[in-house]
Amino acid sequence: xxxxxxxxxxxxxxxxxxxxxxxxxxxxxxxxxxxxxxxxxxxxxxxxxxxxxxxxxxxxxxxxxxxxxxxxxxxxxxxxxxxxxxxxxxxxxxxxxxxxxxxxxxxxxxxxxxxxxxxxxxxxxxxxxxxxxxxxxxxxxxxxxxxxxxxxxxxxxxxxxxxxxxxxxxxxxxxxxxxxxxxxxxxxxxxxxxxxxxxxxxxxxxxxxxxxxxxxxxxxxxxxxxxxxxxxxxxxxxxxxxxxxxxxxxx
Length: 251
Ligand SMILES: [Zn+2]
Fold this sequence. Notes:
The protein is an alpha+beta fold. The protein has two domains: 2-78, CATH 2.40.50.140; 82-250, de novo design (two linked rop proteins) (Up-down Bundle), CATH 1.20.1440.120. Helices cover 38% and strands 22% of the residues. It contains seven helices and eight strands. It has helices at residues 86-102, 110-125, 130-144, 177-180, 191-202, 215-233, 238-250, and strands spanning 2-16, 20-27, 31-37, 56-63, 68-77, 166-168, 173-175, 187-188. Strands 3-2-1-4-5 form a five-stranded antiparallel beta sheet. A three-stranded antiparallel beta sheet has the order 7-6-8. The model has no long low-confidence stretch (mean pLDDT 91). The structure holds zinc ion.
């Protein structure tokens, strides 16, 4: 039993008992961690504003046998402005659900945490195209999680891509014209889509989000990434279905 300080983003919150709540937090050093916030459902709780979804907070945690309880919290960034735009809010909630369902406990997530903070910041505080920001997040996150190889080689035969590039979720992403012949469910990549995937896979700095794309490229990115996530993660994301319904209403 010990006391520990952790920094992390609240991915999910849910009621636990009459007045307490549990939160799932993404931390850099410990991956996903479940914390109990005693009295956290109470509107007068001192932890109310620091333990909501999207909050990046510092938590002082009491580690008991089989449970971790929050004893004090301090907000670092609330990303509150996400709540002023249904499109930003719903796609950011999808990012939280994707992480909650795929990050393991006790796994080093320093890079994933940095990427998530950067993505939430850019969505909350700039007028970036939200669908593009989510696509960039997914490509980078899938790469960090080992689901995406480098983009200039065929993920099937390993040869450099020459000429047209294709995308096949079953075969691990970008494939060449030769391998396409024996693959199922293949998308012919637009040149712009191929460039975006390659750029994001190679970029590791603040320029990750510094470009724009055409509507066609943005649509194709959504199509192939949703297919890829469904194929490799194999879960239903309620938040994504909701986010897509909001986007459809806006169009
Ligand atoms: Zn190939």
